[in-house]
Amino acid sequence: MNTVPVRPSVAFGICLKKIEGNALVEAVKVGLLGLGTVGGGTVNVLKRNAEEISRRAGRGIQVTHAAARDLNKPRICDTDGITLTTDPMSVVNDPDIQIVIELIGGDGLAKDLVMAAIEQGKHVVTANKALIAKHGNEIFAAAQKKNVMVAFEAAVAGGIPIIKAIREGLAGNKIQWLAGIINGTGNFILTEMRDKGRDFDDVLKEAQELGYAEADPTFDVEGIDAAHKLTILASIAFGIPLQFDAAYTEGITKITREDVNYAEELGYRIKHLGVSRCTEKGVELRVHPTLIPERRLLANVDGVMNAVLVNGDAVGPTLYYGAGAGDEPTASAVVADLVDMVRVLTSDPENRVPHLAFQPDALSDIPILPMAEVTTAYYLRMQADDRPGVLADVTRILGDAGISIEAIIQKEPLPDSDNANIIMLTHRVEEQQMDKAIASIEALPAIHNKLTRIRVESLDAD
Ligand code: HSE
Questions:
Q1: Which atom of ligand 1 is nearest to the CA of 207?
Q2: Domain assignments of the chain as residue spans, ordered by start
Q3: pLDDT, tens digit, 9 for 90 and up, residues 234-262
Q4: Catalytic site residue 271?
Q5: Rounded distance from Cα 344 to ligand 1 centre (Å)
Q6: pLDDT surpassing 90 at residue 27
Q7: How confident is the model at residue 24 (pLDDT cuts 50, 70, 90)?
Q8: Does residue 337 have its Cβ closer than 6 Å to ligand 1?
Q9: Among residues 159, 197, 180, 196, which one has the least CA distance to residue 232?
Q10: CB atoms within 10 A of CB 245
Q11: Which of 212, 224, 334 to mutate to test the pocket of ligand 1 (most atoms within 8 A of CB)?
Q12: Protein fold of 162-322
């Protein structure tokens, strides 16, 4: 066996000496804005792993100042040695602070603080997906002008290093598409509903108590949070400016247990997916409930876990899985950004990894595709009179629209109803064709209520 004979004690001794040497170099002073779940987790991880972190970064990293809204609130971290204030701008303005960590959230005060930090030549680490998705273009332009770094690994998929994986690890690929479960709260709700038959509101309340949900939980269940994250992923995957306003967003509030069960009968699971695909016509940018084949790994990502599947032309499909929310998983990403930053503090700005993976003057103007022009397969459920000819009318409409049916199930009317449930899977068709067909089916006198329509993705490699 070919090994290099290194006595562990000696190797470790050399490392320690190096650190002892480095200890003479002053620790990088960091100001923390926000001492909630992620802020507390960040302080804890930085303290607990201080030695490992400084061995990696080459210098110590010390939170010297922190701002919180309420200084008397119980905290998950020990704030000894940290100067606390309720005024976050005073932390940004403190001349000793070299790196500002923004964990306040939202895009009001947080944006002012980040822009002020950049203006003063300070580097910024943020977990704020809304801020980056909505104002990232402006923030990165300002950062470039001031030669500072803005890092945002924690903004997408919590502890999964997905930004680094796409921006650096897959840099040799033409990325074709990506699809992910990127909201832990929504995935937790869908999983608990499916596995335990729990009520939507009850599971959401638990997610809030566990600190997973957004301050406004409609961001989780309506797909806004996932659309923020998908906007960021699409930009770094395809080299396009951030375009959150063009994202299509549909929530999970209308998913019923019936649909979950019928999907299972057909061999699928319903997941709240963010999908972005680079097509010849434009980039798809969409978040919606999606049926995915149950044999796919992504279909088996449960609870608060996140996963992102990225398909590159050279590497093929790659899957990244981990905790998408929570104090220490998110802190793991925040601290990784800090370490990256400290390593390159003195490097030439031109040699740093570009914020959006591609050089700022090399972004593409390929448009975001309107949802009407997106092509997917569909799951349809309708309630219909249980009499001859109804199914024939429905299939005629689909046939006339050029929509091919892959599977049909008809369920007996429930005891308290005369209506049969008809469930269909279709082959792929452009959304505007399906919209027209659905409108015609809903106009049939034998069809009751609006059709339930859930998009289906096979997630094949091509
Ligand atoms: N509310 C988010 C989620 C937190 O549930 O995934 C992490 O971004």
A1: 5
A2: 3-161+328-362, 162-322, 374-456
A3: 999 999 999 999 999 999 999 988 899 99
A4: no
A5: 29
A6: yes
A7: low
A8: no
A9: 180
A10: 10
A11: 212
A12: Dihydrodipicolinate Reductase; domain 2 (3.30.360)
d(CA 317, CA 27): 40
Tell me the Cα Rg of the chain.
Answer: 25
Ligand 1 atom closest to residue 325's alpha carbon, by position in its atom list: 7
Please tell me the chain's helix, strand, coil percentages from 3-state DSSP, rounded to the nearest 5.
40, 25, 35
The C-alpha atoms of residue 46 and residue 368 are separated, in whole angstroms, by 40
261 burial (CB, 10 Å; 0-12 / 13-18 / 19+) is: exposed
| 94 within ligand 1 shell (Cβ under 6 A) | no
Q: State the DSSP H helix or E strand holding residue 14, giving kind and residue range, or none if neither.
A: helix 8-23
Q: Do residues 101 and 152 lie in contact, with contact meaning Cβ atoms separated by under 8 Å?
A: no
Letter string b/e over residues 112-122, b meaning 16 or more CB atoms within 10 A of that residue's CB: ebbbebbeeeb
Q: Which residues pair with 423 in a beta bridge?
A: 381, 409
Burial class (CB in 10 A: 0-12, 13-18, 19+), 72: exposed
Determine contact, residues 101/31, Cβ cutoff 8 Å: yes
Report the nearest atom of ligand 1 relative to the CA of 330: 7
Ligand 1 centroid, distance to 208 Cα (angstroms): 10
Q: Do residues 234 and 276 make contact, with C-beta atoms less than 8 angstroms apart? A: yes
The domain covering 374-456 belongs, at the CATH homologous superfamily level, to ACT domain (3.30.70.260)
pLDDT at 87: 98
- The average pLDDT across 335-340 equals 98
For the domain bounded by 3-161+328-362, which CATH number is listed?
3.40.50.720
Element (H, E) at 11: helix 8-23
Contact between 315 and 170 under an 8 Å Cβ cutoff? The reply is: yes
User: Looking at residue 411, what is its pLDDT?
Assistant: 86
pTM of the full structure:
0.93
The verdict on the CB of residue 325 being under 6 Å from ligand 1 is: yes
Q: Is the pLDDT of residue 428 over 50?
A: yes
Contact 102, 138 (CB under 8 A): no
- Residue 436, amino acid: K
Please tell me whether residue 263 adopts helix, strand or coil conformation. helix
Catalytic choice (111, 134, 229, 271): 229
- The H or E element containing residue 46 is helix 37-48
Pocket probe for ligand 1: among 126, 183, 206, the residue whose CB has the most ligand atoms within 8 Å is 183
Q: Which ligand 1 atom is nearest residue 155's CA?
A: 8
Greater confidence, 363 or 16? 363
